[in-house]
Design goal:
Length: 98
């Protein structure tokens, strides 16, 4: 199993270039986040751990042989993509759940 597999599988499912991160898939992602607080918090925990992991590359994780989400120019840009598109939604759903 790869490191942060739950998180990476989720990002691939909802944000892949093949899916186009369509409004429909994003809506399903947000609905699932809203319905499952344990899953939401596990995703958040994996995200935070990945940001602190010096051996993990978001640039590579978002675009490689098996995953096509976004091909960012730098590690910082890749992390920013994840913060803006994934972490922001997780935090919004956490606040809404309250």
């Amino acid at each position: 199993m790869r490191k942060y597999d739950n998180l990476l599988s989720t990002i691939e499912a909802y944000f892949s270039a093949e899916e186009g991160a369509s409004p429909e898939t994003i809506s399903v992602f947000e609905e699932r986040l809203n319905q499952n607080s344990l899953w939401r918090e596990n995703l958040r925990d994996e995200l935070i751990k990945s940001f602190d992991d010096p051996d993990f590359s978001w640039k590579q994780a978002l675009w490689d042989e098996y995953c096509h989400v976004t091909d960012e120019a730098s590690e910082g840009a890749a992390k920013n993509y994840v913060v803006e598109n994934v972490l922001r939604r997780i935090d919004q759903m956490s606040k809404a759940a309250g």
